[in-house]
Design brief:
Layout: H1 2-23, H2 26-29, H3 32-48, E1 52-61, E2 66-73, E3 78-85, E4 89-98, E5 104-108, E6 116-122, E7 127-138, E8 142-151, E9 162-165, E10 168-171
Antiparallel strand pairs: 1-8, 2-7, 3-6, 3-8, 4-5, 4-7, 9-10
């Protein structure tokens, strides 16, 4: 009887200690749901402007943490990248780099203390861009949510362009049509 009472007391103490450790863990304070709400509030403006917004990622970050995202782009289409943090994220920086050259296309490094950042640009090539997110100032481990939007459609999908398919994007290959009047690798014959 005494051993059963002793075992139940140790079980209660172990569960209490585990509950306290979980309550004070750093990830317990980060609020990804709040960050998602803030990101979708920002996205409402762009949806009204004709952008098709899609969720990209969400997670936890801290001071000095940097994330990189690859976003497929098509020439002539407008894109927007929006990132929102919860109330622990104070200053977030976002910049978009061309993957081939590494040149910065557009950036948002404003010194604001609201944990919101966003960039908008028009792609001048087919391929991908790297979007870099840096948490410059946070008060504690924070939650974040990133959204990507695209406005416009590819007039006729050509080989080498990206096409939206359920579950993501895919690069169109050899079966896709090519623009009329283009030639093959230096010859004067049109591509069929």
């Amino acid at each position: 009887m005494k051993s059963l009472l002793k075992a139940s007391k140790s079980l209660v103490l172990a569960l209490s200690a585990g509950g306290l450790l979980t309550a004070f863990a750093p990830h317990a304070r980060a609020d990804v749901a709040e960050a998602s709400d803030r990101a979708y509030q920002m996205a409402m403006k762009y949806s009204g402007m004709g952008y098709y917004m899609t969720p990209s990622k969400e997670g936890h970050g801290g001071f000095g943490v940097t994330y990189e995202f690859e976003v497929p782009v098509n020439r002539g289409l407008d894109y927007v990248f929006v990132l929102a943090g919860d109330h622990y994220a104070e200053e977030v920086e976002v910049w978009v780099e061309a993957e081939e050259t590494g040149n910065t296309i557009v950036k948002d490094t404003r010194r604001v203390r609201n944990g919101l950042a966003g960039v908008r640009w028009r792609s001048d090539y087919n391929g991908t861009v790297n979007v870099v997110v840096h948490f410059a100032r946070v008060t504690d481990r924070c939650g974040w949510c990133a959204l990507v939007g695209r406005r416009g459609t590819v007039a006729a999908p050509y080989e080498g362009t990206y096409s939206t398919v359920p579950g993501g994007t895919e690069k169109l290959g050899g079966n896709a049509p090519t623009p009329s009047g283009t030639t093959t690798r230096g010859t004067d014959e049109p591509v069929k």
